[in-house]
Amino acid sequence: MNLYTEPLGRLIEALKRLPGIGPKSAQRLAFFLLQADLDYVGSLSQAIIEARQKIRLCDECNNYTDGERCDICTDPRRDQGLICVVEKPFDIAAIEKCARFRGTYHVLHGALSPISGIGPDELKLANLMVRVRRAPPQEVILATNPDVEGEATALYLARLLHPLGVKTSRIALGLPMGSNLEYADEITIQRALDGRTLLL
After folding, report:
1. Do residue 91 and residue 134 come from a single domain?
2. Same domain as 88, residue 39
3. Which long-range CB contacts under 8 A does 187-190 form with residues at least 24 apart?
4. Do 109 and 26 share a structural domain?
5. pLDDT at site 43
6. Quick one: residue 99, left, alpha or beta (phi over 0 = left, psi -120 to 50 = alpha)?
7. Torsion (CA) 130, 131, 132, 136 in degrees, nearest 10
8. Res. 186 pLDDT band, cuts 50 70 90
9. Cβ(188)–Cβ(147) below 8 Å
10. Which of 7, 25, 142, 147 is the most buried if burial means most Cβ atoms within 10 Å?
11. How confident is the model at residue 181 (pLDDT cuts 50, 70, 90)?
12. pLDDT tens for residues 37-89?
């Protein structure tokens, strides 16, 4: 016997696919949406569709944007000579929270993971190399996550950038191994940035 009608069951299944949402959370969200005002539900669905249709990757750094280049890349107050390389767009928000870093970013959209079939070709590396060759930065800071995949990615990038004569550093492990930037507090990220070390 099915506990839910087919439309409700489909909604719960769709919500379960969201990251961090288990069966119980999906049920709670589904029941919330059923009881919510129709105007709210309509505006929520419209916001999701509009974001999906209009948001793209920045041509320069691969951050999310609704134009050709993101707000950080076009901000004249940012130091173009500093590039902080992160795995995911939400890692930028984590670093920006500490209000210490005033450079630019580059988003890889992943990390090297042979087990998952993610090699260099699956990462957004091409435009990073174009940026570095076009205007060599003073420093590239590798802020990949402090886990096995993040460490492997940082080492790979350091070896890739070394022949170009680019100063390359790794954020200090003020972040515990196995954790993610999105869950770190501002002080931890600030210490990690301040204590970064050179690679190669």
Report:
1. yes
2. no
3. 187/98, 189/94, 189/95, 189/97, 189/98, 189/100, 190/98, 190/100
4. no
5. 97
6. left
7. 130
8. confident
9. no
10. 142
11. confident
12. 999 999 999 999 999 999 999 999 999 999 999 999 999 999 999 999 999 99
With 0-12 / 13-18 / 19 or more C-beta atoms within 10 angstroms meaning exposed / middle / buried, residue 171 is: buried
What is the CA 109 to chain-centroid distance, rounded? Answer: 6
Query: Which residues face 105 on adjacent strands?
Result: 84
Among all chains, which residue has been given the structure tokens 């954790």?
Answer: 179
Helix (H) or strand (E) holding 54: helix 38-54
* Residue carrying structure tokens 């204590």: 195
How much is the pLDDT for 98?
85
**Domains held by the chain: number:** 2
88: nearest Cα among 58, 115, 120, 64:
64
